[in-house]
Each structure stands twice: as C-alpha cells, then as structure tokens.
C-alpha cells in the first residue's frame, strides 16, 4: 500500500501586495509531512517560516496572498492528499499553535467552554459529551484539576498552562497535522521541555504530522525528524536532523549551526552569520546568500532555485553541493 503524505506543499509562492506591485516573499517552497513525522523549519528572522505555516493553514494576514503553488491535505486515514484552494482555510485537517497563546484563546470565554465549543463544531457531539471531551483534553495536556481549570479564563492561568490549553484547543479540532510556530519560545527552559514532551506524545499517540518552526536549533534537534533550513523565502537545505545539523552542506546552514554555542565545545566567541539577509525587493534569480558567502564564485551568479523538499534524501541548494561539504570543515 502506498503511504501518502498528510500534507504536501508544492511550489508555494506568497506575495505582499503594495499598491500595483506584488513583492514575492516565499518562492517555490515545497515539502511533505507524513504521519507521526515532524518537519522542523529553521532560519533567521524574516526568512518566511511563519508565512509558510500561515499560507498552508489559509490564514495569511491582510495584504499578503498565495500567488502560486499547491497545498494538498489528506483528510482521511490512507487517503491521497487533495488540494486546498488559495484563500480557503484548511479547517479540520490542520491546526496551529502559536508562540503567544493569547492568539488562540478567547479572553472572554472560559477555556473549557471554548474547547467544548470547538469539539461541537466538528458535529455529532452533544453539549455534555463535548464538555466531557474538553475535560479529557485538558487532562491529556497535563492541566492539573481539569474540571476546575475548565472554568478558568485565559488571564487566570500561567503562561505555561495557557500554552497547554492552546494545544488542547488545537487538538480539539482533531487535526491530522499540527503547525507549531515557535510554541516554546516565550517559555522558560523547564516549561519548554515539558511542552516539547507533550507535543511529542500527542504526535506519536495520534499519528499526527507536525511542522515545528523555531529559530532555536537545540529545540529542533529535540523534536524534529527532518529539518528544512530556510533563507530569504526559499528552502536551501533539507534532510534528517543528523544530516543537516551534524553535516550541513550549504554554507548558510553551516554558518547558522556554527552560530549556536555548544556546551561541550571549546569556550570562545560566538560565531555569528556575518551580514544580513537581503530585503525581498532585492531577491533575484542568483543565490540569495551570495553576498554573505565566503565560498562564492561565478557559478553562484546563475539561476539558483530553492530545493524541492518533497524528495527524499539530504540535499542543499548550493551549486557547490557536495564538493564544498569537505571544504566547509576547514572554515
Ligand atoms: N503582516 C505583514 N506585513 C508585511 N510584511 C510581512 C508581514 N508578515 C511578514 N512579512 C514579511 O514577510 C517576510 C517573511 O516573514 P515571516 O514572518 O514569515 O518570517 P519568519 O521567518 O517567521 O520571521 P520570525 O522568525 O521573525 O518570525 C519578511 O520579509 C517579513 O518582513
């Protein structure tokens, strides 16, 4: 039997409308996520991580629109993914967890009531059964005294507890793929570890696909199976966690990973990625990392596309892919 991906993003393009012009900020982003698989997306601020999730979800901010590509979602176990039109909210198949839990919760509603109403929107559930399911969901995400906390308003809960409730709310839609946009960034290290464990449990127990966006490589290492590195609106490297994080091939991926201080490594100044990413108005057809790259030559000035992350294996968009991998060790 063929095992279909749950979510397939194919050649996604997203643009910001400015009067008569459209500024492309995501350019040919392609990847697939299967059941129980977690795709981590890393990259510097502004590279397009959040817009990728929002475009998949059909929740782009006003003035920003999908201008190309296809999003396909499998709504039934074993079913081939079918297309979600631009502007259509992916609804029940996808759910999103944000960095700021206030973005998901309604400040005027008791958290349990909000979750129960979300369960009811799926249809076929009585009010009392939806309440029971809401209490079970709160318990499943580790909310203590879930029957009591059912009646709390979001502002009465701590940040960590609110994030647990936001995850319960996302699970209440019975999603097939959970889109997580920096869900642990605002939390301290202990809470961060608890939320990562919780998301991992939800993923394995429910067979969820997951996309986890973070700028924190250590977090990605803990939760993801496959990592995509984004730069200036494109995926520039993809592969398993150990391929990409231990043996990066693209000079940008290498620099990003080297910028993370290591606990076991020698003490020394942090190496940061010199320079800054180009403004979307300057995105051209050449490699977008050209100006910051110590390995550039004339080959990098030709057309360099992002890579198709739906294909298996460890791949990078660098035109020197492979031949540079050895040389990078010495830099
Ligand atoms: N609401 C918006 N209006 C105008 N431009 C936007 C908006 N949201 C994002 N952008 C632009 O789109 C590009 C991609 O932004 P996006 O938020 O996806 O990046 P990101 O990688 O998630 O960054 P961060 O890690 O800071 O959240 C950036 O150039 C950003 O300035």
UniProtKB/TrEMBL annotation:
GO terms for biological process: peptide transport. It is a peripheral membrane protein. Its main location: membrane. Pfam families: ABC_tran (PF00005), oligo_HPY (PF08352). The keyword Transport applies. Coiled coil: none annotated. SUPFAM superfamilies: P-loop containing nucleoside triphosphate hydrolases. The keyword Nucleotide-binding applies. Residues 7-257 form the ABC transporter domain. Keywords: ATP-binding, Cell membrane, Membrane, Nucleotide-binding, Transport. One of its GO terms (molecular function) is ATP hydrolysis activity. One of its GO terms (cellular component) is plasma membrane. It is found in: Cell membrane. Belongs to the ABC transporter superfamily. This is Peptide/nickel transport system ATP-binding protein. It comes from Sinosporangium album.
